[in-house]
Specification:
single chain; alpha+beta; Immunoglobulin-like; six-stranded mixed beta sheet; DUF3019; DUF3019 domain-containing protein; signal
């Protein structure tokens, strides 16, 4: 009885060593995450500059592309499944949506948003007006 258990554990260990990415991908849910998920500029209307790291899992084996909405050109494309990532420097002046789509289709399978925030909001007063008194 102990021999069968040892062989089963050894066989399972061997499978985990030989095919770890495939086994992990089968158990992974669909997700798309970004870190950080907020970009902060000093004043309202200014562009914020941030290095963003996107991580996602796509368990279905297809051709996918990663987009910054509303751009029609993808940031990257790939074929396959599993856990992947993308790192880049971004210049954002407003909150921006990022999507993973099936290649050659306008179908979004995953989506996330990077919010842009400001430390100081602009005043409604216009300081360029002339004053006589």
């Amino acid at each position: 009885m102990a021999v069968k258990f040892t062989r089963s554990v050894t066989l399972l260990s061997l499978l985990l060593i030989l095919m770890p990415s495939q086994l992990v991908a089968d158990n992974q849910p669909w997700y798309l995450k970004v870190e950080p998920n907020r970009c902060i500029a000093l004043r309202q209307g200014q562009t914020c500059y941030q290095t963003l790291v996107f991580k996602w899992s796509v368990p279905a084996e297809k051709e996918y592309c990663f987009f910054q909405v509303p751009d029609s050109r993808p940031l990257t494309c790939w074929y396959g499944r599993g856990v992947l990532s993308y790192k880049g420097n971004f210049e954002l002046d407003r909150s921006t949506v990022y999507q993973i789509r099936i290649k050659d289709k306008d179908v979004s399978v995953l989506e996330t948003k990077v919010k842009v925030a400001w430390v100081y909001k602009t005043d409604r007063k216009n300081y360029s007006e002339w004053r006589l008194f």
